[in-house]
Amino acid sequence: MKHQKYTALFLAGAASVVISSEIYAAPINDNDYQPESEQFVTSEVISSSPLAHTPRVTHSAGAVETVPTITSETELVDYIINKMENLEAVFEVRYVGNTSDLIANKKLLQLIKEAQNENDYLLGIGSAVGYNASYTSNEANLKFTTSYFITQAQQKFVDAEVARINAQILRPNMTDLEKVIAINEYIVKNTTYSYSSSTTPHAAYALFKEGKGVCQAYAMAAYHMFKAAGLETHYVTGYAGEDHAWNLVKVNGQWYHIDPTWNDPTFSTPIPGLENFISYQYFLLSDDTLLAERTMDSRPNLPRATAKNFEVFRSIESIPFKFNGIQYMLLPEYKNNQFFFVDYTNNYVINSLNLENEQLIIKQVANVRAMDILATDHAIYFVDIDNRLGLSKVDLQSKATTRLYSGGSVTSIKLENGVVKAYNNQNVVYTENVTAIEADSEIKKIANLVNTIVLPSKQFKKQADELSNLIDIASVDLQNYLSADVLNQIKYIQQQYEKMNNLFIDPKLSWAPLKKITEPLKSWTVTLSQEVANTPGNQSKITVVDMFGDEIDVDITIRKEKIMIKPNQNYVDGVPYTLVIDGGLQSNTGEKLPNRTHLTFMFGE
């Protein structure tokens, strides 16, 4: 029996398909097929290599499972990809259908390759799948063996670490931008670019387990953390002087490039403080900006990054800088949704970038000249060039500058347990306790916000989310600083917020879509198909509830088949209300309304 045998290699994550070797026997034709007998035909390997070669993890066979039968090529490829996404070791499948193209002409090889090329996860883990096929003209038995650069146990560890870290660095109701800033900062500040990990440096496992890895590990760590944070993202490969990997991430509906590896540059000479070094030169860039200096591997379904809303981040300076023989690290400080940084190209002024402004622009904080800086809620502490490299601070509200220490050069500033400490090398030369100052500022913000929250109101959710964020980031125990009245108000707001989130109004039971009304005291008349008794029991089944599910004060009148509902207080603008008629409403003939029904409405233009 004539047959064909070949081996093929697909490098997922590289720019193109590479056929490493093909060995052909005599060509086969239709007469070679014997439908009644299986013939062992081929052994094929399809692999996804990383950006550099390291030993793979080879999985051993697990428990025996029932071999499924699949009858379409699409279902077959979906089945294979699903198994690979779950890091399955060995699996089998029976395919029923025309096999001449699928096996003999390598179509299955091409289909798997195409599916891998559109799968971020499989590209990022260096997935490889090999299979043996025995087939006739109309069916095939396929046995697949896989290998990856991560094991199932390691992937579980990664998933657990991502959940733990995200819970630690992300707050509820963070914006997309805030999430990306926090994740990028965590990866950069907790990872060293290195090939010397005990497991492959191309996998996110090495990064989370050992704090080491190369670009593939950085990009896959970001991929997992972005996805877990609810952000859309892609793993991207290309060439930037060498093979390279980074990410696309969607922020506020627009796609951007982010390269956590290049935001964590390496230095040839060890410098104290490099563990805190972070760059924003490759943070949320457009295609035009990033691809002017590198190429990106083509994948047909990757989105375009056309927006340039965050290119201003490239103005945030990060650099080791030697001044008067003293080595400083000019690094940005991120505090209360603002970046503060020294502009060493412009007379060492302190600049800020306020992310709460609709238009992101760089502004000067104060007319001072600085080296090292430290941001707190109320002030910027800085090494003051014009104070003989002593310590000064700028009040963020008044913009007033105060000299704090002039007795010699300050080499670094740190915040330790609520105390600002200025160092001359290893010696502490100045301290200032900021806990009370910070606490006072935090408490005032929380108390002021609590006093502005109105229940119900259309601003309630936004204000309650802001209150939750302030409480989460508070540096002190609120019980010790807030009055009992404010604490009780916070508790009530939190209870109402939970009720609002748990309130479920089933749209299937509504007798009409949402109604917009313009009368603040609009009455309602509901006409039923039968007369209803005007009894307290029936009246109790008719209510109007607000956004929290709390009943509002209304008068109910029942006249035969009509129900009249009149509110005794104005509806609040922009707040949804629901008129509810519960099941069990009884007609004069004793019949009962079988199911609850309702109408949701909202007052306002």
Automatic annotation (TrEMBL):
Coiled coil: none
SMART domains, alphabetized: TGc (SM00460)
Transglutaminase-like domain mapped to chain residues: 207-262
Signal peptide: 1-25
Gene Ontology CC terms: cytoplasm
KW Signal (keyword) present: yes
Stored Gene3D superfamilies: 3.10.620.30
Protein name (database record): Transglutaminase-like domain-containing protein
Organism: Solibacillus silvestris (strain StLB046) (Bacillus silvestris)
